[in-house]
Every structure is written in structure tokens, then in C-alpha cells.
Amino acid sequence: MSTVTIPTFFAVEVESVGDSLRQVRGGIGSAPEVVLDCSSMRRIDSAALRELELLAQAAEEKSVKVTLRGVHVEAYKVLKLARLASRFDCVE
Amino acid sequence: MSDNAAQLTEERIAYLEGLVSQARTAAAAFSQCTQDDVDRIVKPMVLAGLEKAQYLARLAIEETKIGVLEDKAIKNMVATEFVYNYVKDKRTVGVIREDPEHGMLELAEPIGVIFSLTPITNPTSTVLFKCIMAIKTRNAVIFSPHPSAWRCCSEAVRIMYETAVKHGAPEGVFTCLESHTLEDNAYLMHHKDVGLIDATGGPGAVKAAYSSGKPALGVGPGNTPVYLEKTADLDMAVVDIITSKTFDNGTICASEQTVVIDDEIYDRVLRKFEALGTHLCNEKETELLGRTVIDPATGFMQPMAVGQTATNLARFVGLKVKPDTKLLIAPIKGVGREHPLSVEKLFPVLSVYRAKSVDEALKVCVDVNHAGGLGHTAVVFSKNEDVVRRFGNVINAGRIIVNSPGSIGALGGVYNDMVPTFSFGCGTGGGNSTTDNVNVYHYLNIKRMARRTQAHMWFRVPNQIYFNMNAVENLRNFPSRSTIIITNPALEQIGHADIVRRALPPHAQVRVTIIPDAEPDIKIIAQGVEALNFYKADQIIALGGGSVIDAAKIMKLKYESPEADLEELAAPFLDLRKRVVQYPTEKINHSRLIAISTTSGTGSEVTPFAVMTDKERGIKVTLADYSLTPDVAIVDPQFVMSMPKGLTVDTGIDCLTHALEAGVSIYASPYTDSNAVQAVRLVFRYLPEAYNNPRDEEARTMMHNAACIAAIAFSNASVGVNHALAHAFGARFGVAHGRANALMLPHVIAYNASVPTKFMPSPNQRAYVAHKKYAMMADLLGLGGQGVQEKVQRLVTAIEQLLDRLAVPRSIAELGISQEEFERAMPDLAKNAFDDPSWRSNPRLPLISELVELYWKAYHGRVAEPAKAVESQVREEVLV
């Protein structure tokens, strides 16, 4: 018998990227996988980057896989510059 | 990681890592800002700096005990207002420069995290300057101020940071190391996330930056020589030097150190200095000063003297000077360790030297320049432009300041239009990577986007071409005082020269020069030029085949431009437009060259090429330039009606090869294509006729036209690998050029029509089209076939059948060359074929191994294998 894990889905709100991420971090650990819909996220400020850093740390500690979905290439480049891209799974 | 950095505690490393992480995050976020965003941040930062200029100057003076409050305040204002004036309209985000004419675009990419060392001498002004540059370029900076200027610098950083963040810069964009040590610096200099080190400071800091292996802007010490030449405006020069050398008590590293003064004005200049509040030291005082302010152990200035007032220095040393003395002037007699005051002195002590001549003065300036000031700054005062230029040539300095103060001049934007800066690049002389005044562009990675450009092409032919039977009669349209007909003995003997002579206008002075029927050598050329000079020829008529016409082209060149060096003009080139050696344009004689061809193959009457033999060196010399192209070509078939069969075939196949190679050349264009395909069509239609019925006037006319038309094509598109192979083979085995071409032709077509091992770089072509162009020629010949591959195969077959009909040997073996002999010759053949310039326009770049393979195919004469066409393009429509 196989077990199917159902990831928790979140949408990152364009108006409040930092808040959205903080909320996700608060609930980390309740599911083995978290998928963040980043398709509306065009710009990431330094506060949001710090939140992502914390989220990555929390996920690593709790062995939760965090997937960023629909990251625009402009935002993806920022994640690369901040050395965060490799800490998440980025999918289309 | 350096040994120094390895001594750090884990706690300290965590602190430093936190700084880098913060800066990295800020830089990442900052990278999203637009030009408007950064410009909105920069302006209030500048205003904040201006507002706090005096405040920060006071802090700096209190902390460092160096310099002059008023001057430091001015420096802070220059670092903000003047720098802003320079950067405000500069594009530093996204597209920063566009050059649509050349298809070039420059885009800015931030560096990311910059680690910046700032000096004790110009502490707050350097911080203000670097903060503005960093924001303008979307970079984050970790500052490491000189420990003795930490408080004032960290305050400057705080003011800039708070203003920047308030107006939209990311948090963490600037940080300032606290309680730092050399170990901290070493750790950060080696950190993988630090993109650039900007080290403004002493030699130690600069050396550490460059030694880190990171990209670095290291800006270090200077030793500014000044040449005060006798033609200078002395009043202006003296005031400028005092202004500059006393500015902030001489702490700017570009300030004057040694003034070399012409003997004639020396005493007058010193009196002027003295009259303006300086103290002229006597010999004893100079000696005492040198011993005190320069460390005898190191030969460098004593740190305690840096930025002190002249009166304070005098007191330290024990000199009696007036209370308001601005500057101590010390005469020196040379440069070097035995003359301590000849080095950099960042305080108001100025050395002077009396020079007996301009040469001596320049030499002393060079000595000062090399005594620790290489690449930095130098000053010359003179109205003599020649002296100024000589000074500029012999002095190695990134900034050569003319008739203005050194320190303020080097800062830029005040006395001149140099870029305002607080960091002076000193080039390799100073161990730096740049001689620039460091500015925003040094804080950017500049990405160059280069679009594919379409090179200008050309189509050049003789001004006039007359063709068809009796075209020679057009000669009477060309008036001449003195005409020389150049021809060979056979043509003279059968009366061709007389036909030409009769066609010339009556009363023209006409002489005939007979040259051998062979490739001309330098002796023949010289004889011809002698005749042209003797008769003052204004018209040359070349009557003959390729050799005669080529000889006439070279004679004309040497007659008009006697200085032309034929050996140099034959230098190899890849692209005609970029060739190193240019043909002469200045002429002492002028003549018209009319070429009348008596064979139907080379087309020399319309080409820009000429071949001669260098018997001394045993080589052929090929000249190529459009200036060699005859002015008039006459393509009159009456001169080819008696061509023997062998010559008809050889020249006819040469013509066909010209057309086929020009058709697929990388320089082919619609202009050359139209000529190439027409020539191919005419050869297939008329060469067999001319061969079988030599007196057939139509066939002879059309083949004569075909040769000229094919030559027009290859004059502009050039030939290809077939010619390279044929040249090397023909020269080695004494085989006629056309026949050698014929042996290679089917194999070369199959080769060019297949998928290349190496593509030839060809910006003029959008894709590999050789196979499609062969197919198009097959279509025009009505050869039938489906698809490109089959059409190419039919073209190859048609050529083989044509060669059979003309009884051309179909293999090298048939010529009686043994396999062993051919094998022995192969290394030279392949080498010479590869050295031949003909293939440089071939659509496929030949490997030497492929040339060998082609030679062996030609040796065995196997029927060419069906061409394996480029699969993806097989179904595409054939376009020319």
C-alpha cells in the first residue's frame, strides 16, 4: 500500500509578499511539502528575501520540502543573487 | 582563506558572515530597482551630505587630528555636489548606451557586494563619494574605515544609509565594520560573496586588496612631480601650487611634492613663493626637515607629520618661521634616498629643484615620478605646447594636470573636465588595474549586447565592357597621345596586334611591346614600365590571355606608383576590407588600361587580380585589389576563333569552375549569383559546341561572354576550395589550370553539398545554402530531379558527362602520375592547398584531412558519391 502525500498550497500575495511568507513559515511542519504559488510575485524586497531565508531555514530543520511555483525569471534572478534559489525547488 | 583570517573566532566569523549576508540580500533586492528608483535615492543623499559637510569635517578633524576643517568641509561638498553633477544624468541601470548604427547595446549589471576601505586622510569625503556611487549603481557596500577615522566615517555611513533607505534603498545596503582588525579585512577580502574590493588607502591596504585574488580597485600613494617651465604664467603657477599643496594640509595624494624650476626663473619663483607666506628653508633647515619628517629607516614620510600645518611641522623640527607660514619650501639637489624630501609628503612641505635645461628638468620629473609616484598625478606649468607634450610623453601618470593645481585638479570637475573622484587609479605603475578617476562605471559590470550586423557588400566591375564580334572597334572612342600595346609574340605574329592598331584613332602614337607568353616576372614588369615611362604612355592596351593582361595590370601599377612594393602588396589577407596592406592611391602618372582577352577562361580583363612569378624566390605572387581592375574590357570573339581545342577546354572548364565556386561562395550576393548562374548555363550550352566546331561564331561569342560574366562573379564573390586544390596540384605536377580544376570539380561539388564538418564563419549568409544553390543551378540547366539531394547529384553527373564529352582526363592517375609519387607529394599538396587563399570564401571550411581526401578522390577519379544533403533543409524552397 502506498501513501500519497498531499502538499499544502499557498499563494504569495503580490501586495504583501513578506506577510504571506511569514504565514507560511508559521505553519511549516504541518505537511511534508509546501507549494508556494509565486506567479504574482514580480518583485522581492529585502524584507521578503529575509523571510525566504528564514523559511528555508525552518523547512530544512523540519525536513519539509518547499516548492516555489511560477517564479518569474526576474524574481528568480534575485533569488539566485541572494543565494536562495538552490534552497527551494523552483518549478513552472 | 588567508592566514590572518584563519585567526578569527567563530563568534567574529558569524558577525562578519552576518554583514555579508545582509549586504548580499540588500544587493539582490536592489538589483530590481530602476534608473528612476536610484536617481530618486541619490539626490536626497547628496543633499544630506551637503547639509552635513561641515559637521562631518569637524568630526574628522577631531578624530584624526589631520587637515583643515574648512578644506575638509569643501572636500565633503565636492564629494557630493560635484560628483552628483557628474552622475545625475548618467544611465547606470538597464540600457546605459546604445549604438544602433553598429548594433551595439550596453547594459548595466551591478557588482553586488563591495568591500570598501577608506583612508584616514580623506575619511568622510571618501565615504560620501563611495555611497553615492554605490547607490547610483545598485550595489551594497561594507565599509572598513581606517581605524583612526572610524567614528567620523561610520557617522558618514549612517547619514548616507538612513537617507538612502528612507528614499527606497533596501535595508542593509551599507554597513560599517565595527572594531575591526586586519584579520576582519582579510576575511572579507576573500569572501566568496564579495564581488569587488575598493581599497582607497595606503600601500598595505592596496596590496592586500590585490593579493586577495578578488577584482579590486586599489588606489595608493603618489609622488607628484611639477615642472615649472620658464614660459609659464609664474604668478598663476605659484598661487596654484600653494593653493593645492596647502589644501587640507597637503593630504590629497595628488598634491605637489617636488617642483622642478627652470634656472632662468628659479630665483624669481622662490621670491614669489616667499612673498605669499611660505618659508624658504636654507640648506641646514632642509637637512633637518628631511631627517625629521621622513623616516630614515624606511625612506617614507613620518605618519605623525601627515596633515599637520606648516607651523606645527616647523615647531617639531625646530625651525623658526613666521606665525602665518603656509608652506615650507625645501630646495633639493636630487631624487632618491640620499635626498629624503624627494618622496611623497602629505603635509605642507614642498621640495624645489633648479634645472639647467628642459631636458634636465624632465629627467628630474621622471625620477620623482619613479620614486613612488608612477601612474598617479603630475603637473606641468608652461605655455610651450611642445614642452607640455614632451612632459606628457615621458611621465607615467593617470592625471597630467596642465597649468592648474595638482590636488584639486586631479579631483576633477573644478579646474578641468575630468571625472570627479576621490579615488585615483594609478595603472600598472601603481599596481592598479586602471588609470581612470574611479567613477560609477567602475562599480558596474557592463554587458555588451552585439547584434548580428550585415557587412557592406560590393559589386565592382570595369567602367566599360564592350562585347560581341568586332567590339575592338570601340577603341576609337578612347583618345590617347601615347598608347602602348602589350602582347605576346604569337598574337603579334598572327596579326592580332595589327587589328588593334587599326582600331585606334588615327594619328595616335602607338607602340607595341612584346612580352613572353608566360606568367610575367619582375624583369618583364620592369622592362614594360621602362617603356611606359619612355613613351610617357597615357593608355595601355593589354592584348592576350591572363598572363599578358596580368602583366599589364602590374606594369600600370608600377608606372603610376613606382614606390609600390609588390612583395608587400602580395601580403595575405582574410577580408579585403580589413587588409593590412593598402594599395597606393597617390600616382605620379595616369594611364588608361584597356584589356582585350584572347582566351575564354581567366576573365582577367575584368578581374582585380594579377599573378606574377618571383623567379628569385621560386614562388608565384598574387596581387589582388580593385585598383588593378582594367578601366575598359573588350570581349571580342574574333580573337578567340583560332583557339586550339585543348586551350578551349582548359579555359572553358576554368570558366565553369569560376562560376560554380562564385555561386556558392560565402561572399555570393544576388548581384554575383545572377552572373554565376548565367555563366554556368552558357558553358553547358556552348562549350561543347565551341569544342566540336571551333569556327562556330555563336559558340565562341557565348563562351567568350561566359568567361567574362563568370569573372565578374568571382571578382566580387571570389572562388573556393576547388581553386585551392587546383593551384597546389597544378604547380606541383605542371598541369594546366583548367585541367587541374576539372579533376577536382565533381568531388568538390559533392563535398560542398554535404553537411560540413566545420562551417565557415559567414556573416553574409543566413544559413548553409551551398547544396540548395547547386540544386538551383541544376534546375536552371533543366536537369530534373526531386529534392535538393537528387538535384545536386544530377548536377555532378552532368558535369562528369560534360567532361567526358570534352575528353578531359577524369583522374589524376590517367595523367601518368603514380600512386607512390602522388602519395609522396601529398603532405606538400595539402599544406600548399591549405595555404592558398582561394578557399577562404568556400562555403565549407576545409580540414587538411578533407583536402587530402579530395585529392585522393581526384586521383582515383571515382564517381562522386551522392551528396548527403542537410536533411532539415531538403524540402525548403531553393532561393537565391
Brief description of this entry?
The complex is a heterodimer of chains A (92) and B (880). Chain A contains 3 helices and 4 strands. Chain A has 92 residues and is of the alpha/beta class.
Features:
heterodimer; A: 92 residues; alpha/beta; 3 helices; B: alpha/beta; Aldehyde Dehydrogenase, Chain A, domain 1; Rossmann fold; seven-stranded parallel beta sheet; six-stranded parallel beta sheet; elongated; disordered C terminus
Beta fraction of chain A: 15-25%
CATH hierarchy, class of the largest domain in chain B:
Mainly Alpha
Largest sheet entry of chain A: 4 strands, parallel
Provide the CATH superfamily of the largest domain in chain B: Dehydroquinate synthase-like - alpha domain
The backbone outline of chain A, from C-alpha atoms, is globular
The CATH architecture of the largest domain in chain B would be Up-down Bundle
Describe the structure.
The complex is a heterodimer of chains A (92) and B (880). In chain A, 38% of the residues lie in helices and 18% in strands. Chain A is of the alpha/beta class and 92 residues long. Chain A has a single domain, classed as STAS domain (Transcription Regulator spoIIAA, 2-Layer Sandwich). Chain A has a four-stranded parallel β-sheet, covered by helices on one side. The longest helix of chain A has 16 residues. The mean pLDDT of chain A is 86. Chain B starts with a helix and ends in a 20-residue tail after the last helix. Chain B is 45% helix and 15% strand. In chain B, strand 8, helix 10 and strand 9 form a beta-alpha-beta unit. Chain B has four domains: 217 residues, Aldehyde Dehydrogenase, Chain A, domain 1 (3-Layer(aba) Sandwich); 194 residues, 3-Layer(aba) Sandwich (Aldehyde Dehydrogenase, Chain A, domain 2); 175 residues, Rossmann fold; 229 residues, Dehydroquinate synthase-like, alpha domain (Up-down Bundle), CATH 1.20.1090. Chain B is elongated. Chain B has a seven-stranded parallel β-sheet, with helices on both faces. In chain B, strands 16-23-20-19-17-18 form a six-stranded parallel β-sheet, sandwiched between helices. In chain B, strands 5-4-3-6-7 form a five-stranded parallel β-sheet, sandwiched between helices. With 880 residues, chain B is α/β, with parallel strands linked by helices.
